[in-house]
Structures are given as C-alpha cells and as structure tokens.
User: Fold this.
Amino acid sequence: MNGVAIESNPRKIRAGGMLVIGFGNVLRGDDGVGPAVVEALERLGMDGLQAEAHHQLTPELAVRLNETAVVVFVDASLKETEGDVVVRELNSDSQGGGTGWNGHRLTPEILLGLTLELWGWRPRAWCVEVPVSELGWGPGLTTHARQGVQAAVEAIRVLKGSRECTKQA
Amino acid sequence: MAQRIVIDPVTRIEGHAKITIQLDDDGQVTDAQFHVVEFRGFERFCEGRPLWEMPGLTARTCGICPVSHLLASARAGDEILAVQVPPAADKLRRLMNLAQMVQSHALSFFHLSAPDFLMGWDAPVEKRNVFGLLGTRPELVRAGVRLRQFGQEVIEILGGKKVHPSWAVPGGVRSGLTLAGRERIRTGLPEAFQTARLALRLFKDLAGSLNREIQIFGNFPSLFLGLVGPDGEWEHHGGRLRFMDSSGSILVDQLDPQNYREYIGEAVQSSSYLKSPYFKPLGPEEGMYRVGPLARLNVCKSMGTPEADVELKEFRKHSNGAVTSSFLYHHARLIEILTSLERIERMLEDPELHSDHLRADAGVNRLRGVGVSEAPRGTLFHDYEVDRDGVVTKVNLVIATGQNNLAMNRTVAQIAKHYVKGPHVPEAMLNRVEHGIRNFDPCLSCSTHALGQMPLVIRLVGPDGTVLDERRRD
Amino acid sequence: MAVRTLTIDSKQVSAEEGTTILGAARDAGISIPTLCHLDGIYDVGACRMCLVELAGSPRLLPACTTMVAEGMDVRTQSDRLRRYRRMILELLFAERNHVCAACVSNGHCELQTMAYSQGMDHVRFAYQSPLLEVDLTHASFGMDHNRCILCTRCVRVCWHIEGAGTKNVSGRGTHARIISDLNQPWGMSETCSACGKCIQACPTGALFRRGMTAGEMERDRTRLEFLVNAREKKQWNV
Assistant:
C-alpha cells in the first residue's frame, strides 16, 4: 500500500508559488519516476505550481531556486520504506553528502546550499521520495513505480494545499 | 599475507566506478584500471525502433551531454538518408554544439576542478568542493553558474524546453532561430566572454605552481584524435578525423568518419564493462589515444578565431610536440570556451541562421551511417545499421569516456606510482587519483542516481589477486 | 422523420429517430468522452469510453451505438461512469507499450488527452509489455503496434471512405492486431492506395507518416468528414 508519511518541521513562512523538480533518467526504468510525476502534475495543471523534469540536478538550477518560494524535489528511492512515499522537509540541517568524486550529480541538499551561499537565501524545500524497484535499461515504469507516482502527486497536492507547507520562512 | 579490507561496493544495480591498482611482490605499482558503467544497455533497446526516433531517444541517455548524442545521432541519420543538410540547419546544429561546449566546460572547470587547485590537494575532502570555493571565491562560483546558464539558454532558445530531445532530426533541424532569440544570445555574450577570460587568467597564473601536477597527473605519450576542418583548423561538428602522435606528427588525416573502423578497433577487456577503443594500426597496447579538449587542441592547426589562437600559441609552449599532460585538459577546456564564444558571436551576424529551409527529405538510401560530433569530453560516434525500411537493426556508440579509458588507466597508474608505497591506499593518494580522473571530466551520467552518488571504489590488488586495501569515495 | 424526446443529464432533448445518444447529446451541447468514434464514419462501440447510464437498465450502454428512444433518461456523468472510464484507460495503457516521450503523437494524442481529462493518474493493472513490431515497409507510412489501441478507425476509414479494404483486424483478445490485406507487410499490400486516410484517423501514434519524429505527428480529422459529406450529401463546404 502506498501511504503518505509527512515528516514536518513547521516554521513561520512567507507565501509564494511552488516549483516541483522531478529528476531521474527516463531511460533507466523506474529512475524516471521523478519526471513521470512532473508529467502527471502537468496533466492536472494546478494553479501556482510549476513542474520541471530534469535528468539530474545541475548547478544552474540554483538560479531557478532563487526565483521560487517553495521547491519540491521528486526522486526515486530504493530505500526500504514499505512502499510508502516519504516526504521530508529539507531544512538547513539536512545531510546531503559531498558533490561526489566526479561531481556531475548534485543532491537537493547541495543545490539548496549552493542557492543559499550564492544569494544568501533559499526557498523552503521538500523532497518526495518515491519507492521504486527496477532500474534496468529502457523507458517505462514498473507497476510499483506507477503507484508511487499517484501517491507522490497526492503528497504534492497535500503540500500545495497546506498553508503551513507553502508559506515561506 | 597482508590484511584484506573489503568494503562491498553496493548494490542492486551496476553503476559504480572502480579503480584497481595492481602491485608486484615488492609493493610497487605495475598497472591500474579504471572501470565504469556499461553503455551497451542503451544500444540494445534502440534496436527495432524507427531511425527517425533515434535522436530523441539517444539524447536522453545522458543528462550532462544530451546535445552531443542528439547531434551525432542526427548526423548518422543524414548519412543513412544520404542527404545534404540545408546550410542553415548545419549552422544551427553547430551553434547548439558550441553552446553545449560552453555549458559543459563551465561545469567541469568552475564547479568540479577549480576547487581542487584553489583549495589545495591536501585540503580535507569536505573543503575541496564548490562550497569550500564559495567560502573563498564566491564571485568565481557565481560567474561559473552564470556562464553555464548562458550555454543552457542558447540551447533552449534553439531547441525549446519541450521539444529539445528531438530538435535535430535526420536531414536537418525542426525549427530555426528567431530574431528575438538572436538578440537574447547577443545580450548574454559580453558577460560570458568576461568569465572565460577571467578563468583563463586564473588558470595561467596558477599553472606556475602546478608544475608537479602537470608532470605527474597523466603525463605520457599517446595518440590524439579529433575532428579538423578542411585546412586542419579546430572543428567540432562536421569535418574529418585526424590522428596525431605525441611528437606532433599526423598519422591519419582527413579520414571520413564513415570509415572510422578502418583505424579504430574496440578491445573488450574482460575485467571492464567498457569497450576500450584503440588505433588499429598500432594494436591495443601502443594504439592508446586520447580524445577531448586536449586532443582537439593538439590535432588542430589553429583555433580559427583570433583570441583563442593567441591562447593556443601560448598553450603550445608547454611542449615541442603535442601537449601530453592530461592535467592540461583544464587549460584546453578554457580555450575551447573562448573559441566557442567567439564563434557564437561571429555566427550571430549570419542572416542565413533565420532561413526556413531547415530539413532535407529522403528515404533510406544507405543501410549504414556513422554520425560523428565532438562532444565536450571528446569525439562521439553513433554507428547505426538499418534495414531497407529504416528500422534500426544495430547500434554502436563509441563514447569519449570509453576512448579515454586506456589513458585514464595510465593516469591513475602514474599517480599511484608516485603516492603508493606499500599495501595501503593513503588519503593523499585518493584525492589525487580522483583529480586524475577528473582531468578527463568523464561523464557517467548514463547510469541511475537512485542510490545517491555513484561511488568510486579504489582497490589495491597484490600479485596473486588478493585485495590488499580498498577505499570508497562517495 | 419522427422526433423523439428524452432526458440527458436532466436536460430535455429532442432528436430525430435513428440518432445515437452520442449524437443527441452533442447536439444538445453535452459532451461524452469517446476514443473509437470518428465523425464521418459509422460507430462500432469498440472502446467503451462513451458508456452511459440509462434509467431502468442495470447495464451501461455505449452512447455511440445506442439509438435514442422516446422517454429515455440518460446520465453521462456519475462516479460509476468515471470509475469505468478510468479503468478502460488504465487497461489500454497496460495492454501495450505507450511511451509518450518518444512518441510521434506526443502532445497531439487522443489517448494521452483522454487520460489527462479523465484524471487517470495511475494504472492499477500489471503492464503486459508485449514484444510488438514496427512496420515501416510502406513507402509513405509506418505502423507501430506498440501504440495501437485497436479502435479500428483505420479499418473503417479504409473500407467505408476509401473503399480499398486494406486494413483488417486479425486474432482475438491480446493477439488482436491491425493487419494489411492477408497479414502481410504493409508495403507489400496490393490493395493499399496510399491515400493516407488511416493516418488522419488514428487517435494515437500507431499510424504515422514516415520520417516523423517525437511530437511531430499532427492530424486533420475534419478532412475525413469533409469527404463523406461531399460524397453522400453533395456538400463541398470548406
């Protein structure tokens, strides 16, 4: 069963639009679940919500982050979470690891840190982790990941609807 | 028997990079190998698809260089249709490739490599990254982000955000450049130039103190491969292939990319996932060649733009023949950013860019086609076979990281020989090996990221195959 | 001709005898979702998207093949209908390999649009992922069975409008395929006149002009209706 677990850390925040960044490789099976969530959101067309699909996170996305009040990252996750989509708030204490030895890939935490360092400000941020199972070659998601897409869309709807989540610090 | 330390390198998916360093009985380094992800998976699922889908499909293999795959794939399609691409389409493809060079090289230099030379090799790993650099040189990081954004914006102006994956098609491109788009590019150029010049000055000022790195981080003779124009000038799209040796002698010139297999063999190492291409006439050992910025600057006669040509002259003072230090890939990258900007600026004056004749139409006229384009990290080959109806039956992708694989092995071995004494991997060595690989800016983005970063695993192996030490860098 | 009065979604509607519920609803400005229906050709009730509720009948009826009758009370929207329509779409998506991103019809696909409009945000059924062929043997057109939903629009335009009778359906259930003539490569067909009407009719990216790349295939359905009106009603209104 795909439930939604929200780990919240409420703060006083200012209102504004929401940017969803779904990232992953659409040619590596379920890794493309982030972009699939973006596609589903575009279909629904929620007011005040922009959704972008990216193959991976790159530094210039910091420019986009600087223009939005709330950002929601959507990522595939192989962690055992009993099928639950996990929504985490990414606050300044969130651990994101280094930029990696070849550094082509950034984590949401690093990107947020980069935004903060560059502009002295960062949007309030959430990460929606969608449980997946297959990371094989080729396009298309497994049924498991498709179910996660629905749960993720639901989670984002909840975030969007909650004043607490979309207000800005 | 030495103690065996094994940290199991993950997981349920392939997609870690691994370096194996071989020691002899005296604990001396004899060899090193860098193994990366398998690329063949992409080749397989393209089979059975219509030729016309290939650019859009292959562009999605890589998040760092989609444009390179897009353009090489469209060129392979041109060859199968056997058409002459309309001049405007060819120019627009070039414009996009130049923008790709700018954005990719900007990432490599400002965010990945500069922290190493500016923060110091022995700085702790948590300092030798873009955040460490932000602490000391925030203006540099900001300039890097903006330069990369400039390149991305040019790509978006041409391809659009949505259609981008199949903007280039067999026979041409799908849409042209508007006058408004041209003005937007023009507006961004001055700042881009400024950043490119700043980076070049910075690197050259540092180079004096980096002599040791220039000598040790992958300095060895090898062959070099790159595209050149009809007069031997720097080329990135279209053009023909040139092989040069480290003395500066041209071995093969003006080779039609269709015939690349006459000179390039592909060795499959049993221990590696990646094919290791080599220069056929010299065999898999002697035939090691490098591609990418360093190779392109070595093989060309001139950059073909005034400011970059001055820089090329200065760059060539590093050596009498070809410049052989892999560390100088960084320098070459910056000169390529400069020439790309100069070329973009020059192209904007060309009224033909706004032509609406953008696509040549034809059926399947050849059953095989090879598309070659210079990706930021080196020459990229897309080799397709189709049936008479245009259904793809075979795909061979020869990627830059594969072609540089043998040279990366050599680089790692050279660094290891200097820093490994005995059966353990010292931290200082780990940092330097990392950078040795980073010289080549290898792109492994065709793998998944769901497990977080692709880890790099370094393994010291004794003569009997025992793992003596193993370290992991996430 | 006799006129029938009926109620559709609580609205009083009158329609000539022989009109379908779908036709009567559309005349009254009430839209019912459809996939296999195509203006200008006869209906077959293949896709079941247009199912409606009829007061007094436990069964759901396809609006495209059910004729109006005096006093009918039709409902085109209900939770039950929405549930069924979503399920039909999910089954269509699960049955073959619909990968929108690389598809020639991406952005202009009726299946995709329908999934959006019906709020189909997930598929509960296991993907069948069958191995299916792409037929590029025809000089002008191609057919990708991965994207076919067996609506048979192509078969109907081929028989009814062009009159060539090239396209057919072979097999049953999951083995059903659109074929040319006696199941030979399209390019070998002796009956195909290469008129391209099937290309105009296809709701997805299954049929396309050769050389099309992702998102490039746009169709003009009105040309089919124009031909029928010209032939049958001698009207050449453009």
The longest helix of chain A spans residues 143-161. Residues 160 and 166 of chain A are 6 Å apart (CA to CA). The radius of gyration of chain A is 15 Å.
